[in-house]
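Homework help board

Subject: predicted structure for assignment chain

Our instructor gave us this sequence and asked us to write out the predicted structure in token form, then describe one feature. I got the tokens but I'm not sure how to describe them. Can anyone check?
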Amino acid sequence: MKIIIINGPNLNLLGKREPEVYGSQTFEDYLETLKRKFQKLELTYFQSNIEGELIGKIQEFGFSYDGIILNAGAYTHTSIGIGDAIKAISTPVVEVHISNTFSRESFRHQSYISGNAKGVILGFGMKSYELAILSFL
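My token output:
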């Protein structure tokens, strides 16, 4: 089974950015934990701060992988283009957020991804990614 994790803007700063919200672990370190835990899976990872690059990866893997785990960061609340890309592909997408977006600013309560996603997991810290993987098994 092949799953790609796609992280959006500012998630390259995990471990440094607002540790009280996002924790102190880098995503790269956490990814190694996931790879050890799910050794039978082919886990691929991509991160970009650029909306078009995220859309490009969704399209690139959206017909050949078994699952996409997407944390589009702030683009979740602004990008019709990412929502449309998910709608256009056949690979199921699980939307993930580290924080509970509904306990934060009101603009974070809107998602252009959720309506086209297989499911949404939010508020469980980095464990949200593990829960997303489990949803594909």
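Reply (TA_rk): Your tokens look well-formed. For the description, you could write something like this. The longest strand covers residues 2-7. That's the kind of observation they're looking for.
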